[in-house]
Design goal:
Blueprint: E1 8-13, H1 17-28, E2 33-37, E3 50-51, H2 53-61, E4 79-82, E5 85-88, E6 99-100, H3 104-117, E7 121-124, E8 127-131, E9 141-146, E10 152-162, H4 169-173, E11 180-181, E12 186-193, E13 200-206, E14 209-217, E15 220-227, H5 241-252, E16 260-268, E17 271-273, E18 278-279, E19 282-284, E20 290-291, H6 299-319, H7 324-353, H8 359-368, H9 372-383, E21 412-414, E22 417-419, H10 421-424, E23 430-434, H11 439-444, E24 452-459, E25 473-476, E26 482-486, H12 494-501
Parallel strand pairs: 1-2, 1-10, 2-7, 10-19, 23-24
Antiparallel strand pairs: 3-6, 4-5, 8-9, 9-10, 11-17, 12-15, 12-16, 13-14, 14-15, 17-20, 18-19, 21-22, 21-24, 23-25, 25-26
Helix pairs in contact: 1-3, 1-6, 6-7
């Protein structure tokens, strides 16, 4: 960036969970960040109620779980569903249906507090207006913004990230393609009051559609209403409680019109994904990169994982420890994960929301989920614990089984006592697990001591198959994914360390 004046290292547009998670990750890596958010204050609305098992692990890796007010263990459920076909998630080790009952407003407050403590500059009431020409080839991304008093300003940064939702202005301004399928039906969600509804936690399919209901607080229920045959809503149209109550009665026969709602909204089954997640100095994260039917509450969690993947890489580029090759891995890794998300949510929509013509498909799914192998597969899909990145290091079957996967939450024992991989990742740096007390391994990694922490530990015995059996060392990236693993006596290749963490520093 020499020769080009910048106001900050990274500008993030949008202060939802995705943008705030990214801001915290960037600050943890030493990058300056400004977050531009059009809303003057958080809405406080519940919206996304919780997060998947993998998103919980991401928060755990940054020590954030206790901030949700329920200690180290949030309320989770072993029972989940795929398109309404219920099954036990514990068929897959470490799997569950994620944290339940955490309003999105609470998640945003936790992440904003964390990012703010780390020094993120969060500007509420500011609006992104335009992106200057030349962002593909220039030495900085330059944008025009409007402050709360209506004055316009120019901001420059090394990188710009759009975390501004499904209607992303950044995506449109930067010319990203957004192919996919248009909406075919309209649906509703609301937090209703004074109705005392029977819980329908995993949804109930009735003659005229599907409904869900779950208590949020005393006298408050979250409902989702998916009537058959309702055309897609205009995004700009205001939805009323009377409209939601009418749809609820049409499906269930229950009259809730005597109640009220703290907020109501609508959504559709439109499914789209950006053709690229990066163009020059501009990146897309979360709903700005992918929209889909909110089946299983996966949207917020996927955005958080996008941010976790990109944040440490952008920070490394700002520090001068990485270049385009590392930044390009964001698209290479998260675009396939996004495509898989769209596939599974479309499949769930076909099974759960289809009319009577989908009855045979629903019956087939109910049969299939009786098989343990099917349970394990679907649990991995919906929990996001099955994500495996193609690290491009040769044939997948020749690599260590953990390579490209998230590091499982194994108990580890070292000189300071018992710990877990998530606790070792709190600094946002890489971690090299020395499982064989190998001095040569530690010496080989010494040139990266400012970016990679070495932990000499032993894995506690575990019941069942052990993915660490015969493993002497594991290199874990800051986002919790395994970059390399090898047997005792095999040093981590310098090329692997250089690829993910940049060149070695000269030792004194």
């Amino acid at each position: 960036m020499e020769g080009t004046a910048v106001d900050t290292d990274v500008i993030v547009i949008g202060a939802g969970p995705t943008g705030l998670m990214l801001a915290g990750e960037l600050r943890l890596g030493g990058a300056r960040v400004v977050v531009i958010e059009k809303l003057a204050a958080p809405t406080g609305q519940s919206r996304g109620l919780g997060f998947t098992a993998r998103a919980m692990e991401v928060f755990d890796e940054r020590g954030l779980l206790p901030r949700f007010g329920q200690g180290e263990t949030l309320v989770t459920s072993p029972v989940g569903h795929f398109g309404g076909a219920q099954f036990d998630f514990t068929a897959l080790p470490d799997a569950h249906f994620g944290a339940r009952g955490i309003p999105q407003g609470q998640t945003e407050a936790v992440l904003e507090g964390w990012a703010g403590e780390l020094g993120a500059d969060i500007r509420r009431g500011w609006e992104f207006l335009a992106l200057a020409d030349g962002f593909l080839d220039g030495e900085a991304a330059e944008i025009t913004v409007r402050d709360p008093e209506g004055a316009e300003h120019t901001l420059r940064a090394a990188y710009l990230v759009g975390c501004d939702g499904g209607a992303s202005r950044v995506r449109k301004a930067a010319g990203f393609g957004f192919p996919g399928t248009d909406a075919t039906r309209g649906m509703y969600l609301a937090d209703v009051t004074g109705c005392r509804l029977r819980p329908r936690f995993l949804g109930e399919r009735l003659n005229n559609g599907m409904v869900m209901a779950a208590p949020l607080a005393e006298g408050v229920d979250r409902i989702i209403v998916c009537p058959d045959g309702t055309p897609a809503h205009d995004r700009e149209r205001t939805v009323t409680f009377e409209e939601v109550a009418g749809a609820w009665q049409s499906i269930t026969g229950e009259d809730i019109s005597h109640g009220g709602a703290s907020w109501v909204s609508s959504f559709t089954d439109a499914t789209r994904q950006a053709d690229r997640y990066r163009r020059g100095r501009v990146f897309l994260v979360g709903d700005a990169a992918h929209i889909h039917l909110p089946a299983g509450g996966q949207g917020l969690s996927t955005g958080v994982q996008d941010a976790s993947n990109l944040g440490w890489k952008l920070a490394a580029a700002v520090r001068g420890d990485a270049g385009d090759d590392l930044l390009d891995t964001y698209h290479d890794e998260r675009h396939p994960a996004g495509a898989r998300l769209l596939m599974n949510t479309r499949a769930q929509g076909a099974v759960f929301l289809g009319g009577p013509e989908a009855d045979p498909l629903r019956e087939l799914f109910r049969e299939l989920v009786q098989y343990d192998e099917v349970k394990r597969h679907l649990a991995g899909v919906v929990s996001h614990l099955d994500v495996r990145y193609d690290l491009g290091d040769g044939p997948e079957d020749a690599a260590h089984p953990l390579q490209g996967r998230r590091m499982p939450p194994r108990a580890l024992v070292g000189a300071a006592g018992e710990t877990r991989p998530a606790e070792l990742l709190r600094t946002g740096r890489g971690v090299l697990l020395d499982l064989a007390d190998d001095a040569a391994l530690r010496d080989a990694a010494a040139g990266w001591a400012d970016r990679v922490d070495v932990a000499t530990v032993a894995a506690k015995p575990t019941d069942g198959p052990d993915p660490l059996e015969g493993t002497g060392a594991v290199l874990i990236r800051p986002d919790g994914y395994v970059a390399w693993a090898g047997p005792a006596g095999e040093p981590v290749p310098a090329a692997v360390l250089e690829r993910w963490f940049g060149p070695a520093r000269r030792r004194c």
